[in-house]
Amino acid sequence: MQAKITLLPGDGIGPEVVAEAVKVLNAVGSKFGHEFNFIEALAGGIAIDQTGNPLPDESLAACRQSDAVLLGAVGGPKWSDPKAAVRPEQGLLKLRKELGLFANIRPVKIYPALAAASTLKPEVIANVDMVIVRELTGGLYFGQPQGRQDNERGRAAVDTMYYTEEEIGRLMRVSFDLARQRRKKITSVDKANVLASSRLWREVAHEVAAEYPDVEYEDILVDACSMYLIRRPGDFDVIATENMFGDILSDEASMLAGSMGMLPSASLADAPSAAGGKFGLYEPIHGSAPDIAGQGIANPLATILSTAMMLRTTFNLAAEADAVEAAVESVLGQGYRTPDLAWSGETKVGTTEMGNLVVKEIESA
Ligand code: IPM
Ligand code: MG
To answer: What local confidence, expressed as pLDDT, does residue 272 receive?
Structure first.
């Protein structure tokens, strides 16, 4: 198979982790006889520095002409002046919106070897296997009006949480379809006791639930959900929620897995089908980690695991995806850890070495 992948390494640790993921894809290509062709493009702070635009038109065009996009991370202190006219994050949001990537799939899986890396008790995280489906192109991130509204009483600003029934319905359908391929349970998360957009969310979620009588459905409030995530995380199968709640809950859920550096994601314009074959943007859930950028110690596994999601979802290559995940599991099982995961007595490795270990596992499997 031949494929075209656009790389958007971005800022901070982004280029470091993307480089390792590319090595892994090339190893998969050699082993299984595929040709992955990479085009690198600018996005984020680096794009602002070089072009003044966090998502130059050429970058967007490159993504549109590719089968899949792999993104590292965007943002950093250099561009975070609240008064700045353009911000790196705008590039990422524009990319998601322009490509119609409304469904962000964030699986949370515990590798047994990492049980000690979680701050939670082993018995609490024992059965964790969930997917957070985060709505990605609506809600507070995009609702209008948004911005400063200074007036005679002083400084003021507004963000708007806006949802249409269509946006909610398609996100719920993706979530239910996914649940059907899993343990057939959906938790819809909202704040319906306070927010009008959440009451609509719940109304539409119930209507969609009626189309899926074989899937167990519950709705819970977002504050309660944040508590249950660390109290009884093993109970969740698919969590479906709006953009901002999903952003926050997925960072929280990453602590079950031991580190943000372990969680991959896929952003899709449609439901991931068992048969695969869909365009997608793949990225780790973590950010650019400016505090450790350039030190060669970032954990590349979330980005490497994102390539496994890409292989499965966009390229329909399940055996290849399994090979990447098995390689990660094996390397962790042998005790290798980037510093974010290292407990006492484990072998600490850097970004490049971790990537090399995964590549070696794939080659020798
Ligand atoms: C994420 C990130 C982004 C988001 C930022 C970088 C804009 O936190 O992908 O979770 O909030 O969506
Ligand atoms: Mg986030």
So the answer is: 62
